[in-house]
Amino acid sequence: MSLSATDIIRARYQLSVAAENWRYASLISAPLGTRTSLGSVIKASVDETALKYGTLGTQLFRLPHNRSNTVSPSVAVSNYFVDRFKAIYAAFEQERRWWRSTVPLRYAAMAAIQCEGDAAQIASGIRAVNKGLKEGSKWHSSISPIVQFPVGAILYQHGDTASQFLRELERVRKLFRSVRLHRAFPFELLAVLILRLQAGGKLIDQRTIHRFKAIYDEMKRHHKWLTGPDDFPACAILTGQSGTPRAIGDGIEAIYAELAHQGFAKGNPLQTVANMMYLAPGSAREVAARAAAFKAQFKEHKVRVYQRDWDELAMLSILGKRPAPVVKRVVAIREDLAEIRPRIEKATTFGLAVGIAFLEFATAPQQGRSVSHAKVLMNVQSLLAAQQAALAAAGAAAAAAAM
Hints:
Elements: H1 17-28, H2 32-36, H3 39-43, H4 80-94, H5 103-111, H6 119-136, H7 145-157, H8 162-178, H9 187-198, H10 206-222, H11 232-239, H12 245-261, H13 268-277, H14 284-300, H15 310-319, H16 323-337, H17 346-363, H18 371-378, H19 380-402
Helix pairs in contact: 1-19, 4-5, 4-6, 5-7, 5-19, 6-7, 7-19, 8-9, 9-11, 10-11, 10-12, 12-13, 12-14, 13-15, 14-15, 14-16, 15-17, 16-17, 17-18, 17-19
């Protein structure tokens, strides 16, 4: 299987662990009707959101590379990406109003690590794109700031503009309706973003939409009640993979079964992780065993991996590396990020540390891996930020509906 290039719950800071668990339960156990009515997500106020809940954290997409502004895989890593994240985050923070949440800035900084230029220039450019997204969005599909910032960072990185993207978004949403795909904002926004990147900035054609729908139907064939709008980004990525929709669906199901055999609880989070792991090298059994090995390694380092963190396990599994050195690096980065002020919640630093470590290992020279393959892996973490934000935004709607 070849890899093609292809990722809020409302809360104030200092939320208790009990509240955190309740919010996550609201997300994964919400009735199907709540999950599919995600237009209400964006209507909720999300300025004070905190905490990442991404169950589909990693996606691979085809890079258009319209301009040369990504970090070369030959760059010596060391603490380069950690320092890069800190610098961009600080640049965003300098212009933040005191009452605004820092959460969107973290996602944007993660998505912007690979952009060229100094931190201030990057922050300014992304804010300009975000302004275009805000002004150009229709009232019924306005983009939450939590999702808007990382999406703006990805558009900026690839030389795309807000107006061009929003026009394509509205056009493709109509194509989605034509094949009876439910409204699923903001997940369909991410799906369109992925499809646009895979198309190299060209218009997304009807044949691509039909393949997207066929893969989605295959997911529903295996898990009718688990498959929902949160799987749209996965469908978009898998649309760019080789193989028939049925073969892709069967491959995902094999990974799902192997993960369950390894002790991962069945359910929606496991399905979305299996979607990601379809992109990982090796057989279904090998992929699942690798994820279990990562979990065991984190336990040895006294890092508890919750169900909300499974997407990070999937992300690291895609690397195809031995768990021990990768986990050691994640732990070190997490300790480094704990020194950032304003302080980042402990639950959030895990996802950020995994994203940065992933980027370090993906760009490190490795025998038998092409430069193009490295560039594919480099872009996992930028979409991770957007996907995490979207799932967190969806959680906000589920929590609001429960009140």
